[in-house]
Amino acid sequence: MKAEPSRRLRLPRGEGAGAWLAAGSVALSLLALLALLALLTVRGLGHFWPSPVELVELEGGRQLAGERVREVPHAGGDGLERLYRIGNQDLEGGRWAWVRLSAIEAVSHPADLVVVERRRWGQAIGRLSAFQGASGERIEGEAAWPALEARLAELGTLRDARDRLREEVILPLAGRNDETAARELKAAHARLRELQSAMAGGRLILATADGEGLAVPLEQLLGARRPNAMSPLDKLVAWGEGVWRFLSEGPRAANTAGGVWPAIFGTVLMVMLMSILVTPFGVLAAIYLNEVAHQGRLTRLVRIAVRNLAGVPSIVYGVFGLGVFVYGIGGRLDSWFFEASLPSPTFGTGGLLWASLTLALLTLPVVIVATEEGLARIPDQQREGALALGATRLEMLSRVVLPMAAPAMLTGVILAVARAAGEVAPLMLVGVAKLAPQVPVDGDFPFLHLERKFMHLGYHIFDAAFHGGDVQAAMPLVYATALLLVLVILVLNLTAIFLRHHLSTRHGALTRR
């Protein structure tokens, strides 16, 4: 028995080119997205990898030590010039140095060059001349580095104990007024003074590349390393520690150093509150427009208005939130319930609640449109069958229609989260702060403080990139924060997509998008 020849699908003339054009557009879009993610990953995560330190000998015998950043054509058009991060801002007057390649006579990578991270002046680069302990003993030569490493490990343990004491003992006891709490608080403060006394004292002496001496107090020291003497495994461990500090610590040095933990917490909390606020209102509005309201001219005008609201610039919503939520409702709440605190406002200033409400209003049209489209795709036979079996209209909506439209609702929530998480303009008017190291959640009643200002990853990117005093130092953190914002949005969206898939599987593929 002969097999029938396979039939090849033939597209009408002209449609094949259109299909290839559509496929090419999709491929270019994916390539652009992958290129963006690759750029953010390389520039952002590469910042935490310990870079080698070069000792550069220049014409005239001058030397400098620093981390190579990049090379660009010279402004005069003759040759290239190289940017180095040299640190030592308190000595050099700046952290960066441009060097023409034609002026470089030799480049080496001595293993004894030390990179020190300080709280106040940023990095310091040089050779470790001496280490002076808290008790005054002075260690010089090669023995100074092991002594410094041991002292840094001890300081890390003391800092952890101090932070735990403040967070777990002092802060909870500060809100209590009983006698037992007063005794425990007094003992905790005594212990805190002991820890601070144990951390005080000592310094290290660095010899810079040009021969100057630089004394660094140990209490200002955040870390020290010898990049040129580190193995790949040591660098990987240091990279992991740097990423963890970026995720778990607060910012410092005007957002050009430190971590972004308060911004991560603020972004996720604001998006969750926004989703809780916008979902019921959006779903109820869509149910009314599609299931309850008379389908006449007025209903069509309302739909057109809702769709037009989705295109209003976000800064307009910020102005509305400032005038209505902050000054209007917030000012009235202060006059009613917080009169004793006036003229210092409690709710009459920007905060987490007003930012969440403003973004809920911003994303409300998206949820309404997506939910209404899902309701419109449900066949009328489903409604009629439920009513014919004796169900009331409310039971038909709650037990038949809404479960089948749940994937469309979650689609609206996904789109709302994707838009709200990256918005910056309205937040600048209704509650975001440049620096708010304390997250709006603590152990004091009511535990979640909606009136407090908060940090946001999008605004952190904007502030570090355009308002920082050192743009060169801020740019790697801008890339890392942008990558983190993309990942946060991705995690939130994947959670909603998983729920949508679960509901689509449970209630059939009829409403699957």
Descriptive labels:
513 residues; alpha+beta; MetI-like fold; 2 domains; 6-stranded antiparallel beta sheet; 5-stranded antiparallel beta sheet; 14 helices; 13 strands; 56% helix; globular; MetI-like_sf; transmembrane; membrane; MetI-like; phosphate transmembrane transporter activity
Proportion of beta-strand residues: 5-15%
User: How many distinct domains?
Assistant: 2
Structural class: alpha+beta
The CATH class of the largest domain is identified as Mainly Alpha
> How does the major sheet shape up?
6 strands, antiparallel
Taking all Cα atoms into account, the compactness measure Rg is 30 Å
The H/E string reads: HEEEHEEEEEHHEEEHEEHHHHHHHHH
Coarse shape: globular
Contiguous low-pLDDT stretches (5 residues minimum) are 509-513
Kindly state the number of beta strands. 13
What share of residues is helical? 55-70%
Kindly report how far apart the N and C termini lie: 44 Å
Give average pLDDT, whole number. Answer: 83
- Quick one: CATH superfamily of the largest domain? MetI-like
Number of helices: 14
The CATH architecture of the largest domain would be Orthogonal Bundle
Q: Looking at CATH, which topology of the largest domain would you report?
A: MetI-like fold
Describe what you observe in this structure:
This protein is an alpha+beta fold and about 525 residues long. The chain is about 55% helix and about 15% strand. The protein has 2 domains: about 55-250, no CATH class; about 260-510, Orthogonal Bundle (MetI-like fold). The longest helix has about 35 residues, at about 470-505. About 30% of the residues are buried. GO terms for molecular function: phosphate transmembrane transporter activity. One of its GO terms (biological process) is phosphate ion transmembrane transport. Belongs to the binding-protein-dependent transport system permease family. CysTW subfamily. It comes from Halomonas urmiana.
